[in-house]
Amino acid sequence: MPLHAFTAPAPALRSVLAALGSPTAVREARTPALRAAQGPVRPELPLPVHVLDRIGPLSGPARTAALDSAPRTRLTGWRFLLHSGEQPVAAADTMLTPDGWTFSHFFEGPYVTSTAHALRQAEGLPVTYQPRLLSVPELYMLTLWLHGDLAADPGEGAPRPADLLVPLAPAPPGIAAHRPHRVANLLPVLTHRITPAPPLLGSPA
Q1: How far are the Cα atoms of 13, 43, 65, 76, 83 from residue 132, in angstroms, in the given order?
Q2: DSSP secondary-structure letter at 124?
Q3: Is the preceding peptide bond at 23 cis, omega within 30 degrees of 0?
Q4: What's the pLDDT score for residue 198?
Q5: Domain extents in the chain
Q6: Which of 6, 62, 106, 158 has the most other CB atoms within 10 Å of its CB?
Q7: In contact, 146 and 164? CB cutoff 8 Å
Q8: Residue 75 pLDDT exceeds 70
Q9: Which top-level group of life is the source organism from (predicted)?
Q10: Who wins on pLDDT, 175 or 66?
């Protein structure tokens, strides 16, 4: 089914269009594919980028309670895939500043094509979702977050147990890229990986 995507904040889109229209910004970007693109480059498929906040180094009952609690996320920006023809060649990130949304940087690499591939996969699912990106910095991991609440503000909220997370390539060792996982199944794996184990009895603190 088609994804239920929202329009990015207008100032974020304008900042990307202004950067694309600046020869200096494009020339100085570390994105050879963007500089070499033939014809116009257009921003498409804007996605809100959320970060999974780390659960602190707890132990005992406090650690168990933290792992069982709802995940905490925060919005860090909007990402636009930059298309030349039918294919994405790069991406543009925007960020929120005290003066509003502004252009951050251009980039290219495997996450660009992986994001486009995951979105095509999601459109083939039997359920409609709201697409977002969820970053797990401690694992150098990025996922396509398919949120089930279609009416939710795309800049707010946390992953629900029935939401889907699709790890993008390259994914961390032991986690298959482009395989949808329910949040209830994948999130415990991720939180256990990023939460240090309590020290062994008698070991130095």
Answers
A1: 16, 16, 27, 12, 19
A2: T
A3: no
A4: 56
A5: 10-194
A6: 106
A7: yes
A8: yes
A9: Bacteria
A10: 175
Higher-confidence residue: 69 or 56? 69
Which pLDDT value is given to residue 200?
54
The C-alpha torsion from 43 through 48 and 53 to 54, rounded to 10°, is: -50
- Say yes or no to pLDDT of 202 above 90: no
Count CA atoms closer than 13 A to 60's CA, side-chain side. Answer: 1
Residue 50's closest CA among 123, 114, 135, 115? 135
Mean predicted lDDT score pLDDT of the chain: 87
Tokens of 8: 């990015």
Record the tokens describing residue 149, joined without a space.
Answer: 């609440």
Strands 141-147, 164-167: pairing is antiparallel
User: What contacts 34, CB < 8 A, 6 or more positions away?
Assistant: 26, 41, 82, 89, 90, 106, 108
